[in-house]
Amino acid sequence: MISVRDIHKSYGKVRAVRGVGFALEPGRVTGLLGPNGAGKSTTIRIVTGYITADSGSVEVAGHTGDPVAARRALGYLPESAPAYPEMTPRSYLSYRARLYGLDRAARRRRVGFVLERCRIDDVAARRIGQLSKGYRQRVGLAAALVHDPPALILDEPTSGLDPAQIRETRSLVRELGEDRTVLVSSHILPEVERLCDRVIVIAGGKIRADAAVADLAVTGRCVAEADTHEPGWLRDFAASPAIERLDDRWSRFTFESDADPREAVARAAAGAGVTLRELRRDAPGLESFFVRAIEAEDES
Fold first, then answer.
1. pTM of the prediction?
2. In 3D, which of 88, 12, 8, 115 has the Cα closest to residue 55?
């Protein structure tokens, strides 16, 4: 649905994007992460057709070299969603739908749908300039959805929302990602971890890491505190776990695991007559993945 191939972009002597490439398919929500100045915003602007790359290509819904057709297939929510403050959400969304070529019946249907789906139908007749930042953000999301695009690019979609609105927006984005291509850019790592199926880390204008979120927690450290100093009860899980004697009775056993072994460890402890007072698994998570990618960029 979205294919980015070896794009480059420079501003004078500054090489903002250096050979970025990735492919996004329907049915997945992908997070684009990176520190300030990483090239993330430039990449998004190239994909959305706001600026052109110096070299490389972008294909959106089968359209290459046709930015107008590509934009019709995209819904874009910038970080600061632009809107005419003197217009109402209903009139603004109708205006946006008309720009996309929807006829009167289709405009009425789509505007009513996005007003309700983005929870802004209760302020549909108020001026946008009088709305809170959270409501304005939701108007921007509705504007990105009004023409029912097959691909969405959302830049900080939960910015300015309260906790309840964040949950609603997260649920909406996940639902939209079931049959659309969705790219989310955000600085909030826990939000990306809960929202996205895949993460791409960009730094120094290059892609430094690309992984499925589910794979980030595959390998982790298991920690068990047991009333024994002997590791024999753990022989099926670790040949030589690290052992720290906490006192005359308790020891802490630490070992690496490619899966979550806690249930099996608990059964092994019960079978060996060992008492556990703590059993946990420390998976690396997105933050560790992100930091490792950035540190690798710093060293290169």
1. 0.78
2. 8
